[in-house]
Write a structure and sequence with these properties.
There is one protein chain. The protein has about 450 residues and is of the alpha/beta class. The protein has three domains: about 160 residues, P-loop containing nucleotide triphosphate hydrolases (Rossmann fold); about 100 residues, Orthogonal Bundle (Helicase, Ruva Protein, domain 3), CATH 1.10.8; about 110 residues, Sporulation related repeat (Alpha-Beta Plaits, 2-Layer Sandwich). It contains 19 helices and nine strands. The strands form two sheets. The protein has a five-stranded parallel β-sheet with strand order 2-3-4-1-5, with helices on both faces. The protein has a four-stranded antiparallel β-sheet with strand order 7-8-6-9, sandwiched between helices. Strand 3, helix 6 and strand 4 form a beta-alpha-beta unit. It is globular. The two termini are about 20 Å apart.
């Protein structure tokens, strides 16, 4: 409900992992790149440890999105699998057809046959085990035995364990040392620092469509960081509630007062904030939100009944050209430029149609793990043409892409740039963009993520 108030197109701080909102700061991007390398080139077992809410599931989702197509991944999310059942679960995830009463030996033979066939096809299989700290040690040992399946040169199966710090405690037990010795790569997700959290907040806001200055004051970021203790999930929860508190007061910046209100409404972090007279109790907060909603509805209805005249509309369009999320066309002050608008509409429209057609082909035929740069989002027709015109003068036209979608009843055009097979290439291209384009906070998107977004918007 507060999204239009802050110029957002979607919720910025949902705790459900969304790969389009992956934040590469705080060493997350480096860990992701190292995991991709370890899976595609390494042997043995890989371990990723981090506190609850540190971003392990997001890393797992990102891996499933960006790993090369030749790698087949399966995902085990239930840690309570018994040792005698885990092989059947893996076989089921691999869609192997087995007799109902197949014993352990037959399941193992079927798995080995499948893995050998995949190896001969030049493909690789990796198992992601979530919440590994809660898995019985006997079950972990059963999974470890699968790492023995190999050819003369290669392992047939790669295993990645994601777990909380208790996983290290479990692996330090003497009778599980064989599994511990097979771990060839170990990664730790530490808490985000205050600087990282400030960058994380504005990154998520930009990804959700916000283009203005930072919504959170420096003091608010410090307060939120202390309460969240650097954990991404807590940051999301507190940021969401802080925005709601700011919206309830009808202000456009989040202050310490709003963060304090969010902390008091959360089970964690209350000790990090001393009681304050300015805090909003929950009933008062709910009442303010309801009043704000009624005011917003009344304002909307009044505007619907008093639409501006054509002269006023033209003035509004001209003023909107100077908003922060728009790349200003060159020589915008030329008084004669408006006289050429009609003659320029046709070629600009043809350019837009050609880039839309190119993007449809890319989304239909491109590999899902390919990466592109989302430069900006435009709304009304005039802004779309002006933004495309400006982008085409600054970047290679054949590397520009665009797609259109509906969101909250509005027609939006999203501009993209380039197609990259490796994340490092995309990051390098992003860093090489002109500064005024980077001011719009461009972000990395995958072909799979864009296709999923378009499916959901239909």
């Amino acid at each position: 409900m507060y999204y239009p108030h802050f110029g957002l197109k979607e919720p910025p701080f949902k705790i459900t992992p969304n790969t389009d909102f992956f934040f590469s700061g705080g060493n997350r991007g480096a860990v992701l790149d190292a995991l991709v390398y370890a899976i595609t080139n390494g042997e043995g077992i890989i371990k990723v440890v981090g506190e609850v809410g540190s971003g392990k599931t997001m890393l797992c989702r990102m891996l499933q999105t960006i790993l090369p197509e030749k790698i087949e991944s399966i995902y085990l999310a239930n840690p309570s699998v018994a040792p005698e059942d885990v092989l059947h679960v893996i076989a089921f995830e691999l869609q192997l057809k087995l007799p109902k009463n197949a014993d352990r030996l037959k399941v193992m033979q079927a798995l080995q046959t499948h893995l050998l066939a995949r190896h001969q096809e030049g493909r690789q299989v990796v198992i992601f085990v979530e919440e590994a700290q809660g898995m019985p040690l006997a079950t972990l040992e059963e999974i470890r035995l699968l790492s023995n399946l190999e050819t003369k040169q290669d392992k047939l199966l790669q295993i990645v364990l994601f777990g909380q710090p208790e996983l290290d405690t479990n692996l330090n037990q003497p009778h599980i040392r064989q599994l511990r010795e097979r771990i060839t790569h170990s990664f730790h997700l530490g808490p985000l620092q205050t600087k990282d959290i400030g960058e994380y907040l504005i990154f998520r806001l930009r990804a959700a469509g916000y283009y203005g200055p930072h919504l959170f004051t420096d003091e608010a970021i410090k307060k939120l960081s202390a309460a969240a203790q650097g954990l991404v999930r807590r940051v999301n929860i507190l940021a969401e509630k802080s925005l709601l508190a700011a919206y309830a007061e009808n202000v456009h910046q989040v202050s310490v007062k709003h963060v304090n209100a969010a902390i008091q409404d959360s089970e964690f972090g209350k000790s990090a904030s001393a009681p304050s007279k300015v805090l909003l109790s929950q009933p008062i907060l709910i009442g303010i939100v309801l009043i704000a909603l009624l005011l917003a509805l009344t304002t909307y209805l009044l505007r619907q009944n008093h639409q501006p005249h054509s002269e006023d509309s033209a003035l509004i369009v001209n003023q909107s050209a100077n908003t922060p999320n728009q790349i200003a066309p060159e020589n915008n002050t030329n008084a004669n430029q408006s006289a050429n608008t009609a003659s320029q509409m046709a070629p600009k429209q043809n350019l837009l149609e050609s880039r839309l057609d190119a993007t449809r082909t890319l989304l239909r035929e491109g590999s899902p793990e390919r990466i592109t740069l989302q430069l900006m989002t435009s709304s009304d027709e005039v802004q779309v043409k002006e933004d495309l015109d400006a982008l085409s003068r600054q970047l290679e036209v054949d590397k520009l892409y665009a797609y259109q979608k509906k969101q909250n009843g509005a027609n939006l055009t999203v501009f993209l740039y380039g197609v990259f097979s490796q994340r490092t290439e995309a990051v390098s291209a992003l860093q090489g963009l002109p500064n005024h384009i980077k001011n719009n906070r461009p972000q990395l998107r995958t072909i799979a993520g864009i296709n999923k977004e378009l499916e959901q918007s239909q």
